[in-house]
Specification:
By secondary structure, the protein is of the alpha/beta class. Helices cover 29% and strands 22% of the residues. It has one domain (8-276): Nucleoside phosphorylase domain (Rossmann fold, 3-Layer(aba) Sandwich), CATH 3.40.50. A hairpin with a 5-residue loop joins strand 3 and strand 4. It starts with 15 loop residues before the first helix and ends with a helix. The protein binds 8-iodo-guanine.
Length: 280
């Protein structure tokens, strides 16, 4: 899409749900799978999960589906895939995440989640790389998201849409994950706007108000998922100690490297969790 044409989701006249339905119809046509049962957004460090959960039926460059774009960052995927699980369920893998910090508006951030719901998914698995506020969470530690604090000052909900978020990160799905790995830590994810990492004072604040993880995604997507009636499972990979928690400065290169190092282990963990997730 050229720079001069506004993206449909940035045009206030577009109905974001109708647009998600269009994207879902394109996915059904391109994959030959009329209905996907479960959807996964794979963030930093989680990419290898896609190849471990089943047989890849189709891979589509994200920009060929309505409303999706090429990833802003190399190393952030860029494909939408359809995977057939051993039990016959179909998983939709979203390897292209639009971040709030890209500045394209919250409708584009949550388009993947709305598309997953329109494609038939009942369960949405949201994964990310995050900074750890707890010092015992060394890089490579996977953490189940138990709740979030949305520090973006935004919401994907429009108008008087009073969605209940009491059990946003499904207790039922977290229980299934902990049956697979009883040692799995749980924590509260703070979504900051980014793209800068936090100051040490902001990380201290996040800890004081109840946060355990700092990141730049997931919370807005989880809210949209709940609005769409999806059951949400959230997982963070701690790729770095949040600013001021460890020693030294944060670098994107180190974050990417920690993700790469942990990838086989957490990919295998998530694959076992996916195999155990059943619809409610
Ligand atoms: I990976 O320390 C990753 N993403 N906000 N802070 C924020 N986002 C992150 C961090 C972090 N690490």
């Amino acid at each position: 899409m050229s720079e001069s044409t506004p993206h449909p989701l940035e045009d206030p006249a577009t109905d974001p749900f109708a647009f998600a339905a269009l994207a879902a119809a394109q996915i059904a046509e391109r994959t030959g799978v009329p209905r996907h049962d479960i959807a996964l957004t794979l963030g930093s460090g989680w990419g290898s999960t896609a190849g471990l959960i089943g047989e890849t039926i189709a891979e589509i460059p994200a920009e060929e589906i309505a409303g999706f774009s090429r990833p802003a960052l190399p190393g952030h995927g860029g494909k939408i895939s359809s995977v057939r699980l051993p039990d016959g369920r179909h998983a939709l893998i979203i390897g292209a995440r639009t971040h709030f910090y890209e500045g394209h508006g919250v409708r584009r951030v949550v388009h993947s989640v709305r598309t997953a719901a329109a494609a038939g998914a009942r369960i949405m698995v949201l994964t990310n790389g995050a900074g750890g506020i707890r010092p015992e969470w060394t890089p490579g530690t996977p953490v189940l998201i138990s709740d979030h604090i949305n520090l973006t000052a935004s919401s994907p909900l429009e108008g008087a849409t009073f969605v209940d978020l009491t059990d946003l990160y499904s207790r039922r799905l977290r229980g299934i994950a902990r049956q697979i790995d009883p040692g799995l830590a749980e924590g509260v994810y703070c979504q900051f706007r980014g793209p800068n990492y936090e100051t040490p004072a902001e990380v201290r604040m996040a800890g004081i108000i109840g946060g355990d993880l700092c990141g730049m995604s997931t919370a807005l997507e989880a809210i949209a998922a709940r609005e769409a009636g999806l059951e949400v499972l959230g997982l963070s990979l701690v790729t770095n100690a949040a600013a001021g928690i460890g020693s030294g400065a944060l670098s994107h290169a180190e974050v990417v490297e920690a993700g790469r190092a942990a990838e086989p282990v957490i990919g295998a963990l998530l694959a076992r969790i996916i195999a155990a997730l059943d619809p409610a």
